Amino acid sequence: MRGAFLFSVLIGVVLAVSASEKRVSDTSSEELFISPLKTGHVYLHFKFASSTPLKAHYAHTDYLPKPVVDILEKHSVDELHVRLTQGVFRHSKWGYPILSAPTGGEVWAWFKPDAEGLPEKWKGLTNSLSGLLCATFSKIDTANSLSPKWNFRPEGLVPGGNLNSSLSRYSMLPGENVCTENLTPWKKLLPCSDRAGLGRLLNSIKLLSAHYFSLSLDVTPVCADVACSQKRLAIEITATAVVAPGSLQDTNQLNWSIRDLLEMDLDTGCPLTDKSHILVDQSSQGQMVFWPSSTFTLTHSPSAKGRIAVYDLKHNQTWEKSRGLGGKSTARLEHGTERQPIISAHRFVAGYGQQNGGIRCVIENTHPTAAITVSYLEMLPWFLRVYFHTIRVKSLVDGRPIPLLKSHFGPGRDRLAPHHIEVIFTIPAATTVEFGVDFDFTLLKWTEYPPDAHRGFDVPPAVIGVKLDQPGGQCGDFIFPAEFSQLGGGQMRDTATASSDGQKRDTATASSDGQMRDTATASGCFLRLYTEPLLVSLPTPDFSMPYNVICMTCTVLALAFGPIHALTTKNFKLIDLAENPPLLERVKRKGQLLLTKFRKTPPAVVVVAAEEEDDQQPDVHDEDVKNSDSE
Amino acid sequence: MELAVLVGAAAAGFALRSGLIFSDLPKLVSQRVEFSVPTNSWQRVLEGSFLYDSGVDPYSGDIFHETPLCLVLFAVLKKRISCFGIDLIFPVLDVVTAFLLFFFARNLVQDTIVSEQKAKEKHASGTSKLLVPFADIVTVPRMVLLWYLFNPHIIGSCLEKTTSVFTNFLLAAMLLSASQGPSLLSRLSSLFFLALATYQTLYMFLLFPALHLYLLQNAPEKCRSSRKFHIARLVIHLGIFGGILAALVIGSSVIMGSWSFIRGVYGFAVFAPDLTPNIGLFWYFFTEMFEQFRTFFTWIFFLNICIYSVPVSIKLRHDPPFAIFTLLSLITIFKPYPSYGDVGFYLSLFPIWKRLYPHMRQSLVVVVMLLVAAVLFPILWKLWIEVGSANANFFYAITLVFVASQVFFVTDIMLAHEKREWHLMNGMKSDVDANGKAAELLLD
Amino acid sequence: MSNAGNPHPPGFSRPGAFYNLPKLCVTILLIVLLMSVILSWLPVVAQVAAPPGSKTTSHHTNNWAVIVCTSRFWFNYRHVANALSMYRSVKRLGIPDSQIILMLADDMPCNARNPRPGSVFNNARQHIDVYGDDVEVDYRGYEVTVENFIRLLTGRLPPGTPRSKQLLPDDGSNIFIYMTGHGGDGFLKFQDNEEITDVELADAFQQMWEKKRYNQILFMIDTCQAASMYKKHYSPNIVSIASSQVGQDSYSHHHDTSIGVYVIDRYTYYALEFLEKITQTSKKSLYDLFKVCPQSTCISTPGHRSDLLERRPEDILVTEFLSGNREVKPTHFTVKLPDTDDRDVNVSECFSCNKEPSKIDLENYKIYSDPFVFS
C-alpha cells in the first residue's frame, strides 16, 4: 500500500517534471507605439516580438513562426533582417523612425561561421524569403549583393566574438513594391495572425494609403539577461506607417483615433502573448487631450520632455464603443517640422544625357557645436562604370575638401558584383557636405533590359550610419523616447534599461522578452539613415534588330574578305574578252537568244545566226546588234 | 630650307596641340567615343592608378584595361613630374612620332627608288612614268610629317590624351628601326618595339610575318636562296619577339603579384565584353546577339582579324612595308575597339604610296564616305545619347558607313598595288592582249 | 567454288531441311521488329482509343489553379482585374492559397496611379474589390515570363525554388489554368516583349501528361483570337474555353471614370457572373460554362474544345475544376502514427545534416564588443 502510494507519488513527480519541461518556453509580446506629429500625421509602429531558447535545431516552436526558423536553420543563418518599404521617411518633417528602412526591399544576413558555400546559401535564403513573403527577393544574387565592411554590424550575439565581415551579405532591391500580397503572409507569421490583438488593426487598405509604410522582420540571437547566462533567439516583426487622418483637410487641428486611422476596432490583446500594450507618445502635443485614460504612464529621462501613456490590453482595458483610442488637439496645428533633425541626407543624379553622370549626396549636420562622424555606404549597380578616383567629399559652405578617415573601394565586375563604396568622414558642426562620384553608363546586351526598358534602372539608396553622443542630448531628439527601446526594442541601444511596469528606471533588468541587446559603450546611440533611391536611364539599342544587325555587319565583313581573298589567291591576267565575255555580256547574249526563239522565226535561222556570231571575233557587240536587227 | 620647314611644322604642330590641351576644349569634348575607347581612355588610366595606389587590384574590376607596365610608368611619372608635365608628354610624343615617320618615309622611298632602279631591266617598256620619281625623296616624307601633324584624327586623339599616342609612337619606332638596314641592332630594336606594341595592344602580333619579311629583305642576296637561312632567321626573329614579349608579360605578373591582368588586358581584347559604342563593328553586333551564338561569333570575329596576316604577308612578300601598312589598316578596321587615333596613323602613312593613287578607282567614294562619317558621328551620337530623338540604329548606320569606307580604301589600295606591279612587268596597255584581241585585266 | 565435296547440286538444300538458316534468322528478326513496333504503338492507341464520353466518374483527388495575367502597364488594368476575379472565385469555392499559383505581371493595386491603393475593382458600379485583404501573389512583376511559366507547368524549376512557387500536382490533380492578356493568332504576349506560341503551350501540356502531372485540365483563355491557343492541343483530358475565335478580338466591358481605364473584359465579366452563382455543391456542368457569354453579349464568339476529354462535358461538374472538392474514401483500418518527442530529433527533419545533428557551442556565443566604432 505504501509502496503503491510512493510509486504513484513518484509517477506524479515524474509526470509533473516532464509536464513542466513541456511548459511553453517561448515568450511573446505585442506593442503599438503611436506618436502624433506636429505636421498632422500620426506615426504608428507595431511590434510583435517573440523569443525562444537558442538551439541548434528547432523541432517545434510555440510562438515563433516555424517557416522563419526553418529558413534560418536550412541556410545556416545567424542573424536575418528583412525590410519592405513603400515611400521615403521624411526626416526633416517627421524626425527619425524607430526602425529605418530603405524604399523597396532590403535583406541582410550574418551566416554561421561553419556555413559552407556561402553564395549558394545566400541564394537559397533569398529564394526562400521570396516564397515566404511573396516578394521578388529571388532577384537577389551576387550581382546586387555585397559584404559590408564597417556598416551593418551584427545587432545580436556573434559566435566566437570575432567579426568576419565575409560572413555577412547585404542586398537592396529599390524597385520592389509593397502591397497587400506582402502583408498577407507577413500577418500569418504572427502568433494570433490578424484574428485577435493588435494584428487585427492591420487594415491593408488604410496602411497602403499611408505616406510611408514599412514591414520588417528581424531575427537575432540575444542574451536573456545581463550576465548572458541564457541565450535566446528573438524574432521581431514590425510594421511602421505614417498616416494622415482624414479630418486633417477639414480642420486645422489634429483629431485622430484608431477607428479613424485604421478603420478597425480595438479589443483585448492576443491571448497567446504575455504582454499587449499600446503606447501613446504625449510628449510633443502639449495641447492634445487623449482618451481614454491610460493604465499607467511612463516618464522620460529628465533630459527629454513629455510622457508616454501605456494602455495594457490584457488588464481589463475597456474601450468606448465607436471611440476607441484617440486624441483631440485643442490648438491649431503648427505645420512645422517635428524637430530639426540632427542629420539629414538627400541624393541626386548629376549630369545629363546617357553617356555619363554622377551621384551627389548632400548631408547636413545641423548641430551648432558638435562634429559628427558618419559612415557612408553606397552599393552602385555594375552597369554604371564608377570611377573611384572621382570620389570626393567637400563642404558646401566653403568648398574645402573633407578628408576621408577610412575608405574601402570594391570595384564591381560586369554581371557579377556591384560597386562597393564605404567611406568614413567627419562633418564639422553646422555644415553641409556633398559626397560626389562620377560614372559612365554602359550599353547592355539586348536581353538584359527589362520589358519596360525606357523606364530606367533603379540605383539602391545610400546608407549613412551615424553614432550620436548621449551627453549632448542628441539621442533624446528622436521621435521616440529612449525608454521605448527597452520596452520594444529598435535602433536605440542605451545601456540604461527600463522595466515594463514601473515609472522608475532600473539599470540592469531586462524586459520579459529578453531584449537585452548588448552592453555597448555608455556613450551614444546609433542611427541609420537611408537616402532616396535613384532612377537612371541607360542607352537602349533597338530591340527589333538582331537579324538585321547580323546581316549588315557580316555584309561589311564579307566586303573586305571577298576582294582580299581574291587578291591573295589570284593574279592579274589579261583575259580574252571573246572567249570569256564578262557576265553582263553573257546575260545579254542569252537574252537575245531567247528573244529570237519567241519570235516567229524557224529554229534553223537562229542556229545559223549563232554560228555566224561565232565566226566574227572582234567587235562582237556590234555584230550582235547588226545580226539581231537584220533578223 | 628643308630644316626650316621641318622645324616650323614641328613647332606649329606642337603649339597647336599644347594650346588645345591646356585650353578649355578638352573639357568640352571629353570622352568622345570616336577617340576614347575602353582600351585607350585616359580616364581609365587615372582610375587604374588610383586603385593601385589605394591598394586595390585595378584588374579586379572591369574598368582598367591598360598593361601593368603602363600603370607603373604612370605611377613613377606622377611622382616625378607634375600634372602639367604629364599633359605635355602627349604633344611631345606626337611630334616625336611624326619625325619618326618622317625618317621612316625617307628611308623607305630611298629604298624603293634604289630597288626599282636595280630592277629596271625587268620592267616593260614605257613604264618609266610609273616609277617613283626622285623628287619624292623630299616631298613624300614632308607630306607624311604634315599629314601626321595636322591630321584632325591624331590631334583629337592627343587632345583626349588617349594611349593610342603611345601605340602610334611604338609602331613608328618599329617601322623606323626596321627600315634602317640589315644591322643586328635595327632588327633587334624593331622586334623589341613590335613586342612592346603587342604587349600594349594585343593584335599587333599579326604584323610579325610582314615585319619578318621586311627584316629579311635587307639580307645579302646569296643567303636568300638557302632554305636553312630562312628557317634560321625565322626562328631567331620569333625567338627574339617571343622572348621579349614573354619577359614583359612575366615581369608584369611579378609587378602585379598575380595573373589577373591577363583577363583584364588580353582577355578583354579578345572577348570584348564591354559594349560601349565606338566606331567599330563589334559593339552593336554583340549587343544584339542571340545568346546561344555569342561564343561562336566572338571566335569568328577574332578569326576575322587574325586571318589576313599570313596570306597578305605572303602575297606582298616583295613589298613588306606595304604589307605592314595593309595589315595595320585591316587590324584597325576589324579590331574590337578602334579609335580615330589608329585610323589617323595609317592614313598618315598613305603618302608613302602615293604612286598608287592613279590606279585607285574608289578614291572619291572613300573620301566622301569618310567626310560624311566624320560629320555625322558627333551629330547622331548627340541625337541618340543626349537629345533622345534618334536611336542606336542611326549611330550604327554611320559606323557601317565608316567601316565600309575603310574597307573600300584597303581593298582599293591593294588592288592598285597589284595592278601597278602588273603594269610595270607587262606594259601600260591593258585593253588588248598579246594577240591583239580585246582583253581586260582581271584577277583570275 | 568447287562442289567437289558436295554431292548435291548447288542451290539445293540438304534433304530433310525445309529452310535456309540465315534466311530464317532474318525472317524471325523482322517479325520480332514488326511486333515490337506494333506493340509499342498500342499504349498510344489505347490512350486515344477511349472514345469521348466513355468514362463517367472523375478520379481527381486534389485541385490546383494557375492564374496568369501577362500584361504590363496601367492601361492593362483590366487584365489584372480579370485574373484577380478568377482568383477570388476559385478561393471562394475552396481551393487554398497553397494550391493556387497567381502570376501578375504588373502591380495595379499599389500602383502610383491607383486612386484607391490596395484595391482592384472589377465593376464600376458595385465596387467589388477583387484584390481584398487575403491575397498571395506567387509570381509578380518581371518574374512573369514565358520561361518561368513553362518551367512551372512542367515542374523543371531551379533547385531552391520555394514551395509556394511550385506547381506540385500528381496524376489525380485537376488543374484550372486561366490566362489573360493580349494575344493573336497562335500566340499570347507576355510583358510586351516576348510571346508564348500555341505549339509551346501544347508541348508543355504534353510534358505534363507524360510526367503524370494532371488528371484533367480546364484551360480558359481571355485574349484576342483566343481560340488559336487551344487548336494545337494534343494531350488527352484537356478541355479548353476561349473568349473569341480566330480572327476576332475580345472586347472589354466597361470603364471606371475615377480609375480612368477599362476595368474588366466582357468574357470574364459574364463568366464571373456565372461563377458567382456557383457554390461548392452546385451541379452546373461544363456544358453550362460553355454557354456563358454568347455572341450577343460578348460581341466575339467564345469557343471551346472538348474532344480530348474521355467524358462528356455534360457529365463534368464545374466544381471539379474550380472548387476544392475531392473524393473522400473512408478507410476501415487504423493507421499508427509514430510518437513525437521534442527531444527526439528525427534526422529527416534536420535540414543541414545527414548525420547526428550537432549541438552548437552555446558557450562560444559572445557579445560583439563595440559595433559602433568604425574599425
TrEMBL record, chain A:
**Position of the signal peptide:** 1-16
Question: Where is composition skewed (Polar residues) in this entry?
Answer: 508-517
Q: Keyword Signal: yes or no?
A: yes
Q: Which InterPro entries match?
A: PIG-T
Give the highest taxon in the source lineage: Eukaryota
Compositionally skewed regions (Basic and acidic residues) per UniProt: 618-631
Q: Does the keyword Signal apply?
A: yes
The region called Disordered is annotated at 490-517, 610-631
Name the keywords, alphabetized.
Signal
Annotated GO biological processes are: attachment of GPI anchor to protein
Which Pfam families does this one have? Gpi16 (PF04113)
- What's a GO cellular component annotated to this UniProt protein? GPI-anchor transamidase complex
Name this polypeptide is given: GPI transamidase component PIG-T
From TrEMBL, chain B:
The cross-references to Pfam families, in alphabetical order and at most eight, read:
PIG-U
Q: Where are the transmembrane segments?
A: 84-105, 130-150, 162-179, 191-215, 235-259, 265-286, 293-310, 322-352, 364-381, 393-415
Membrane disposition: Multi-pass membrane protein
Q: Does the keyword DNA-binding apply?
A: no
Task: Give Gene Ontology CC terms.
Answer: GPI-anchor transamidase complex
Q: Name one GO biological process term.
A: attachment of GPI anchor to protein
| Assigned keywords, A-Z | Endoplasmic reticulum, GPI-anchor biosynthesis, Membrane, Transmembrane, Transmembrane helix
Q: Where in the cell is it found?
A: Endoplasmic reticulum membrane
* Recorded metabolic or biological pathway in which this protein acts: Glycolipid biosynthesis; glycosylphosphatidylinositol-anchor biosynthesis
Source superkingdom: Eukaryota
Family per record: Belongs to the PIGU family.
Name of the protein described by the UniProt record: Phosphatidylinositol glycan anchor biosynthesis class U protein
What organism, scientifically named, is this protein from? Answer: Hypsibius exemplaris (Freshwater tardigrade)
UniProtKB/TrEMBL annotation, chain C:
Key word Membrane present in the record? yes
One GO process term, biological-process aspect: GPI anchor biosynthetic process
InterPro entries this protein is in? GPI_transamidase, Peptidase_C13
Membrane-crossing ranges are 21-42
Keyword Nucleotide-binding tagged: no
Family, as annotated: Belongs to the peptidase C13 family.
The protein's name is GPI-anchor transamidase
- Species source reads Hypsibius exemplaris (Freshwater tardigrade)
Organism classification: Eukaryota, Metazoa, Ecdysozoa, Tardigrada, Eutardigrada
